[in-house]
Amino acid sequence: xxxxxxxxxxxxxxxxxxxxxxxxxxxxxxxxxxxxxxxxxxxxxxxxxxxxxxxxxxxxxxxxxxxxxxxxxxxxxxxxxxxxxxxxxxxxxxxxxxxxxxxxxxxxxxxxxxxxxxxxxxxxxxxxxxxxxxxxxxxxxxxxxxxxxxxxxxxxxxxxxxxxxxxxxxxxxxxxxxxxxxxxxxxxxxxxxxxxxxxxxxxxxxxxxxxxxxxxxxxxxxxxxxxxxxxxxxxxxxxxxxxxxxxxxxxxxxxxxxxxxxxxxxxxxxxxxxxxxxxxxxxxxxxxxxxxxxxxxxxxxxxxxxxxxxxxxxxxxxxxxxxxxxxxxxxxxxxxxxxxxxxxxxxxxxxxxxxxxxxxxxxxxxxxxxxxxxxxxxxxxxxxxxxxxxxxxxxxxxxxxxxxxxxxxxxxxxxxxxxxxxxxxxxxxxxxxxxxxxxxxxxxxxxxxxxxxxxxxxxxxxxxxxxxx
Length: 469
Ligand SMILES: NC(=O)c1ccc[n+]([C@@H]2O[C@H](COP(=O)([O-])OP(=O)(O)OC[C@H]3O[C@@H](n4cnc5c(N)ncnc54)[C@H](O)[C@@H]3O)[C@@H](O)[C@H]2O)c1
Description:
By secondary structure, the chain is an alpha/beta fold. The protein folds into 2 domains: 59-186, NAD(P)-binding Rossmann-like Domain (Rossmann fold, 3-Layer(aba) Sandwich); 190-395 and 417-448, Dihydrodipicolinate Reductase, domain 2. The chain has helices spanning 2-30, 70-77, 93-105, 120-126, 142-151, 166-179, 193-203, 232-239, 247-256, 277-284, 370-379, 383-395, 401-414, 423-430, 432-440, and strands spanning 59-64, 83-89, 112-114, 132-135, 155-158, 183-185, 210-218, 265-272, 299-305, 310-316, 328-331, 334-337, 343-346, 447-448. The strands form 2 sheets. An 8-stranded mixed sheet has the order 13-12-11-7-10-9-8-14. It has a 6-stranded parallel sheet with strand order 3-2-1-4-5-6, sandwiched between helices. Strand 4 (132-135), helix 5 and strand 5 form a beta-alpha-beta unit. Mean pLDDT is 93; it is low at 1-27. It binds nicotinamide-adenine-dinucleotide (NAD). The site of nicotinamide-adenine-dinucleotide has 25 residues, from loops.
């Protein structure tokens, strides 16, 4: 009996120890989110929230990077009034010449050309007759170029993603704040027709409170891999896990949720599938050894905001899938979706009788009929599209959104208005690359998303585009 009692006591003790160990492992910090360093803002330095700068009647522009993307921008700028294309730069002189031909065709004078050296772009930035430096090079020099251009007294606009590491992101913020120069990321997808119309609907309360948004870059790049200068894009994918091209999904989602204009992103978690298709392509098509290829076939990121909203972002440049930016929102009274079916689902109370005579019969269990969708899109057409849609479709660039982006950038500079996207948007949307990599390398641990405004995220009440009148 005594022996049985001892055995029982030992069993209780053992179970107790196991439970305690389990609890200890939780409280020992295993579930604490990972954090990164937030540099202190130098004393006397001001944020650039809502930054305005003196009006520039004729915006003088210099372009750096004239590969697949750059010449399209040069061409679009020939259609924007109040612009002078002053200088063109690329590593290769023949690429500069190709863009000079665009100017000639448009009946414009030749621009000053810079090429030949890795750092020829610095001479372009040093010119005293340029207001805006427009960058469309590969990802690795974006931050250096933006920082140098701002230090030379220029506003900058840079292709996506404009910065790849947290060090770069903080250095770009620091420079924009110190110089009080505009630093805009050229995120075109926020101007697409369905997205901007839906944003307008959301801002007018059609969906109730928007609680969830999703976005993505799903685009198999196999046919493009061979076309990037010095193979920079495949190399970046080879060396980095994580969502390294998040801005097309993040831009529209963050504008819907008023990120750093009343809400802020608090933390993220990421998971990825193992890389398969791109390593196979390297082996089978290029006949090379893919080595330790890092970027997952599909990377999924979930984000939680301060105001209790969620964002879901995907990256997949490897799989044979239809192109998609996912774009979806769910609100308390309605829903919008772009890929693969573009449509709205709304509670009847959210639809006016001028849009649908039988609106009270609508419910959100299915998409509104096509004629109601068309009527909604007409009623809520954004002012930017009312003014620019025709011209944008004529000039083109991803169906017109690229022209609208460039036009808005110049319009705001000409009118001394805050730009549609500021350096904190750039930081937030680009931060997914380093922060998802950190999460993935730590068993999908939650990672704190820094407040890049350093305390100013609640100063502006809602995201809105600025207009001169
Ligand atoms: N927003 C969009 O829809 C969209 C679409 C395509 C590409 N992009 C972005 O545009 C950028 C450029 O992409 P791309 O497809 O044109 O790549 P690309 O490789 O075709 O072109 C890059 C160009 O930059 C030049 N370059 C590199 N280093 C330079 C230097 N030191 N000085 C001057 N020129 C230099 C190269 O010679 C090349 O001509 C990337 O950031 C990419 O992600 C955005």
